[in-house]
Amino acid sequence: MRKNVGTVDRIIRIVLGVAIVAAGVVYHSWLGLIGAVLLLTAGFSLCPIYLALGLSTRKPKAVPQEAK
Question: How far apart are CA 58 and CA 67, in angstroms?
Fold first, then answer.
């Protein structure tokens, strides 16, 4: 599968994921699972929701110009 999570998106997911997992641990709740999902999607650079909607936050690869 093609990666669809860009760098800024990954950083946001990591920060939020760690914060939500920590909150889940502190408050002894299942909320931490949401944070774990964010960390997994950041780790694999793949978001199933983006995939289903045909979205991507990654920059398109530059196409090399042919030598003239």
Answer: 27
Query: How sure is the predictor about 63, in pLDDT bands with cuts at 50, 70 and 90?
Result: confident
Amino acid at 23: A
**CA–CA distance, 59 with 68 (Å, rounded to integer):** 26
Q: How far apart, in whole angstroms, are the C-alpha atoms of residue 48 and residue 65?
A: 33
CB atoms < 10 A from the CB of 3, how many?
14
Give the closest residue to 9 by CA, choosing from 61, 63, 59. Answer: 59
Distances (CA, A) of 63 to 6, 29, 45: 18, 47, 21
